[in-house]
Design goal:
The chain has 22 helices and 17 strands. The longest helix is centred in the N-terminal third of the chain and has 19 residues. The chain has 3 domains: 215 residues, Rossmann fold; 89 residues, no CATH class; 158 residues, no CATH class.
Length: 563
Amino acid sequence: MARTVGVGIQSFEKIITGNCFYIDKTNLIKEWWENKDDVTLITRPRRFGKTLNMNMLERFFSIQYAGQGSLFEGLSIWKEEKYRTMQGTYPVISLSFASIKASSFQEAKKELYYLIEKLYNQFDFLLEGECLKEKEKKYYRNISVDMDPYAACSSLGTLSEYLYRYYKKPVIILLDEYDTPLQEAWVHGYWKEMVDCFRGLLNGAFKTNPHLERAVLTGITRIGKESIFSDLNNLEVVTATSEKYETDFGFTGEEVWEALEEYGLTEKGQMVKEWYDGFTFGGRQDIYNPWSILNLCDKKRFDLYWANTSSNSLVDKLIKRGNRDIKMEMENLLKGGSLQTRIDEQIVYDQLDGRTDAVWSLLLASGYLKVKRYHMDGPWGRAVYELALTNQEVRFMFGQMIDGWFKDSLPEYNDFVKAMLAGDTEAMNVYMNKVALATVSHFDSGTKPSKESEPERFYHGLVLGLMVDLADRYVVTSNRESGFGRYDVMMEPRKEGDYAIILEFKVCDPRAETTLEDTAAEALAQIERKKYGMHLEARGIAPERIRKYGFGFQGKRVSIRSA
């Protein structure tokens, strides 16, 4: 009989005692301990078992759970006597920053301080007896949401000292989802304040802490060292390209197949691979998304389980407000293509607005892209990676995200598409101006939107929208030779009876055109002058079955001419 699938359970004890479906990942305990690294940072995409594994580590090592070795009976770690004797023998400080998702620094700081206060409350027994001096007890009682920044920065290091004094053993610190508050800080515009707050806290816990045995941090990204880890020279960083712990997070192909057998889904094996495979850690290229696999086994149907589990606001912002190159690469990726780029696994958030490789690096770390292959390039031997969308689930997620870009003007956007397919230029002008007025500024990433960059970002976003919305009727391709102020699109019908469509975009140049209508006319003339229709005619589409539209952009105003 198949075990119960406990979707969303992050308690190791609850999974084991409830006889829920579980793939043995206890080898992580042995691997981590024998690596002997002082402080280990492991980055993996969200919903890849980080929290469950951290809870497992706590249950294994913490003195608070001494005598609970029965939880590990039958699992790989319990096969060795050495590790049986280690269960429940260390003081452990365990906390998670997953819940710190505030829209302002003051609120984020309050949530952080509250977590530290709750942590201290777990060890109130330290206030009893003579372990702490009166001055130290006063400091202990002052740990609260209202504490001063110095007390907060020293809190984890100080608690380590107190626990060491009580148990006569150094502490293990487990910090889960360390980067969640920092990602939220970047999205909401208080990055610098949060970085300053974190730098002192992490330094006190992991660098200047003589009472630390070892520590593990988990997160989605490796924040740039100069941001928060500048003082940590004892940090071992394990990213998606590292071979350490490559099978400890996520499910391998063999593990997925066993799960499919248990739940009677083996006949869907190929489809499962297309939807949920594709993640690469170290040298393993057969890592599946565990959240999606668990939900598939539970519900017996395919869906966007992982992609829709939490906000994709950061990814949305990066793509929507990205420059022309980013959007053009997204076109290629959505069609099943790949891109070649250098990768910097130290994510520098301050550079996300200006560097395309920083964007691809973050998308790789977050699990939205996979490494197909890489090679060393140039005289300095820099690694160049070939990246593609991870799997079908991710592809569908991006499609939904792009659809959402026009939600503020959805009726007008839909009416524009209908008018374009019907050849109604007058209606196209009415609806596109409404869409542009509502949407154009959302595509600009700068603090001071540029009249030149706004329409460029917008119409590249529009092309992505057309690709997604009309994928069943048209093959949408763009001219990759285009630069600023010019961008043509071809829409080749998949079925007989539909018109082919050519779109030409042009930003108004006051030096060359008197009116916006002149700009649209010039865009239309360019279609004829450069004979863009010949490509479609060569594929057997009659000239009279080709509709041609010239778009002129000026700020949030649009003019459209047709032939």
